[in-house]
Amino acid sequence: MFSFIKSSLKKIYSSITSQLGTLFGREKIDHELLKELEVILLSADTGVATTRSIIEQLKKKHAAGDITEGNSLKAALHESLLSILSKPAAPSFENNVFVLVGINGSGKTTFASKLAHQYQSLGKKVLLVAADTFRAAATQQLAQWAEKTGVAIEQGTESQDPASVVFKGCERFIKESYDILIIDTAGRLHTKSHLLNELAKIKRVIDKQLPNENIQTLLTIDGMLGQNSFEQAKLFKECTNVNGIVLTKMDGTGKGGIVFAIADELTIPIWYLTFGEQVDQLKEFDKNEYITNLLNT
Ligand SMILES: Nc1nc2c(ncn2[C@@H]2O[C@H](COP(=O)(O)OP(=O)(O)OP(=O)(O)O)[C@@H](O)[C@H]2O)c(=O)[nH]1
Ligand SMILES: [Mg+2]
Asked: Is the pTM of this model over 0.70?
């Protein structure tokens, strides 16, 4: 891993890792200590239900005599965290059509540019589609990124039906033999039925136009919002079939516990973490690496 990625990601864990380190260093493991662990997990955005289930598992192991000192506590916590992150199916990176959904400001457009850049760096021919026609500025924002990174873009006019821009994007994808298609959508939530209809319409267009492609819908969640992002994520989950989650702005949070709450409560796999506004500040999520860094094992 590049060292700058490593140091950016460290910010996510640093606070929780040092607090856990203090616990692992204690000689006696008792209920008092597990209570402290519970507080650390809760303050790291792990969520009430998820934290409770982790602590219950640890209490059982403690009662059975399997947790006697710091190292065995660390190993048991590692096991619990890994089983949570293994609940959703593992992400598959063998896809070529991506629809990005998520609420306003959650980082869709920035992620679209990052994903495009990443595929382009791998030698792929990438087409971006600006299907957020709600604001003229939204298309401009994506167009600026596209210009900066030299990626092709299909854009509509303000107030044009987003599905018709997607239609044109799909046509161009086939005609000009692109490898990767990345569709940026609007994040506004007038009403649930509005969102549902709009996303369903876009999805119908893609399914019809590109029946042989591997299409994935990715939901961006602002990592800084913590538990507040859950209600929105649940709404999107009800409106469309979300295949994976992109946790954005992880550079702005020292609360690395959110990944466990997401995997546990939403059972959707996390695909990417983003940690900055530069085009290369994204990383595929690796559950083993994440836990190892978090626990500093
Ligand atoms: N620090 C930080 N800021 C980010 C990251 N990703 C996005 N942002 C910033 O978050 C703000 C919103 O990002 P956008 O990509 O425009 O979000 P969006 O989901 O497209 O928003 P709408 O188009 O309004 O729905 C911008 O100011 C971005 O620069 C990140 O990983 N870290
Ligand atoms: Mg946007």
From this structure: yes
